[in-house]
Amino acid sequence: MGELVDFFVRSRNFILFVLLEVLCFYFIINTSNYWSVTYFNTSNRYAAQVLAWSNAANEYTRLRQVNADLAMENQRLNTRLTQLLQSKPASPAEYQADSAFADRFKYTVAKVIDNTTQFANNYITIDKGTDDGIHPGMGVISPTGIVGKIKVCNRHFSVVTSILHSEFLVSSKLTKANEIGSAKWDGIDPHLMKLDAIASYKTVNKGDSAVTSEFNSTFPPGILVGRVRTVGVQSNQTFHDITLDLATNFSNLSFVYIVENRLQAEQEQLEKQVEKEK
């Protein structure tokens, strides 16, 4: 306490000077319209700037929650869109799927907590596991396209085999050419993928979309795989040499959607039974 008193005693002249300056400033503002208006405008401008900085900081701290909310909304929209597309395909016009088939795909949102792109065989770790109903074999997609397939799970985490994997194949269809082939990563550029088995007599143009086909039980049909970047002809002259720009940007992957085909086990069991009887 004595030190505080000593400080005020030593600084009494400076403190008096500051108080007199504040008092003068107060009188100037209150006795002059010009300075009063100037002070009012200046203080409002700086207050508005400080408020803008404060709002920007608050919005930045809420980005994580905003992203999570958007991911949940996308999950709901994906479920609804897939249900509508499966219940009434584009052709034939008279076809109507039953409700169980149309509603067979279920989506679960998950957060990416680890991801590699630099290896020949890449994997992704997500924060959902068996406690959330996740099991190996489920498909994984992003808000923009295909991601991979669940490989292993424990109670709280799952590891996904990325499509950036030397053994990952996905049945894909060129929407304009209506031709089905196999998309596979060549192990070089994590932004590109090859599309094989597209007949050379089919017309393929740069920018054409490649989506998941109807001939797989893991992914809903119509999920974007990529868009045609380059088109050539293979040496055997039978198939196109097609390179796709991947729809999913794996370098900034944050949220993904796990796709459960609730009729997959039933379909595969029946197909295995037919194979045994051959």
From TrEMBL:
Listed transmembrane segments: 12-29
Cross-referenced Pfam families: MreC
Signal sequence segment: none
GO (cellular component) term, any one: plasma membrane
Top-level division of the source organism's lineage: Bacteria
Rod shape-determining protein MreC beta-barrel core domain location: 112-260
GO biological process: regulation of cell shape
Gene3D superfamilies: Rod shape-determining protein MreC, domain 1 (2.40.10.340), Rod shape-determining protein MreC, domain 2 (2.40.10.350)
InterPro entries: Cell/Rod_1 (IPR042177), Cell/Rod_MreC_2 (IPR042175), MreC (IPR007221), MreC_beta-barrel_core (IPR055342)
Family under the similarity heading: Belongs to the MreC family.
Protein name listed in UniProt: Cell shape-determining protein MreC
Organism in which the protein naturally occurs: Spirosoma agri
The gene coding this protein: mreC
